[in-house]
Request: fold
Amino acid sequence: MIASALLVDPRCVTKYDRTPRELELFFLFCIFVANKPAMRTAEKLTAIFGNISRLPRDYLRWLGPIRRMNLWRHHKLGQYTRIEGAVAASLGLRLDVCLLSHLTDIPGIGNKTARYFLLHTRRDARYAVIDTHILKYLRAKGMTVPKSTPSTKGQYEVLEYLWLDEIKRDFPGMTAAEADLAIWRQYSGN
Reply:
């Protein structure tokens, strides 16, 4: 499958004017992609929803939990219980106005996934998607940080604050999403 045919292109995720369908697809991508290769996940998302004309969450409501679970298994998404729990709990959520707390209250959606969704769908979002590239950047600034994304809210928020403070100086005039991408490119070689 070529990238232009993907419903979500993982190399170009920041978009602030998504249609309701695009917003739902990106939200599902965010749930599906946790701890998995982004391009392969985008291909699976496209295989599932590429020929569905209705809104993705309307289709998922219609399927119900048993057929949704079979769909996840058929497409080998992995983490079936986590994905089904997150999808089921979020079917009534207003994605265009939801808050960080609404997302993190959903079982199966953590700090990183919630912030990733908001950062790349809201122009004014000031969040950090604490990943290896952000941790490397903070280490290069002389900070003592963990090797992997912290799982507790408090630890995550401390690193987020540090990162947001640093990017104000290092990337003036950039949005948090633009700074995140610049740092990712710097540390990934892309």
